[in-house]
Design brief:
135 residues; alpha+beta; Immunoglobulin-like; four-stranded antiparallel β-sheet; two-stranded antiparallel sheet; elongated
Length: 135
């Protein structure tokens, strides 16, 4: 459906703080995508401390996405470096063509089965009485 779900855990940023619930304030998500005609950066998206996933809706095919996530801790603890991921979404056009071709192929198969059944019915019920009367 063109959506990308990102999930994460805190183990990527080193040892947990002594009191994780008090020290972790949330996450800062920075993202950008670079398409053929446009480049889009999104400023820091603030996510809550309990958040462990993010849904990127309506991702476009053949576009390079870069998302960077950085946890935000209470002031005594320094901010760790951001963890980034880059990816491309599969082009939707090819997927749509495959789905359409499968649907058309299935419809043709169903129509051929009905035609074969109709020919068998005609041969059995309409042709047989005519042959019986002639003999």
């Amino acid at each position: 459906n063109g959506s990308v779900l990102l999930q994460w855990g805190l183990r990527h940023w080193g040892p947990p703080p002594p009191r994780p619930s008090a020290a972790l304030r949330g996450f800062a998500l920075n993202c950008s995508w670079d398409g053929t005609y446009t480049r889009f950066p999104c400023d820091s998206v603030e996510l809550g401390a309990a958040c462990r996933d993010y849904l990127l809706a309506e991702a476009h095919g053949s576009v390079r996405y870069r998302l960077c996530l950085r946890p935000r801790y209470a002031p005594p603890r320094p901010a760790p470096p951001a963890q980034c991921v880059e990816f491309r979404v599969e082009p939707a056009a090819m997927r749509d063509i495959v789905v359409a071709m499968t649907a058309v192929g299935g419809s043709i198969c169903v129509m051929l089965v009905f035609i074969c059944l109709l020919v068998a019915y005609i041969t059995e019920n309409l042709m047989s009485p005519a042959l019986a009367r002639g003999g």
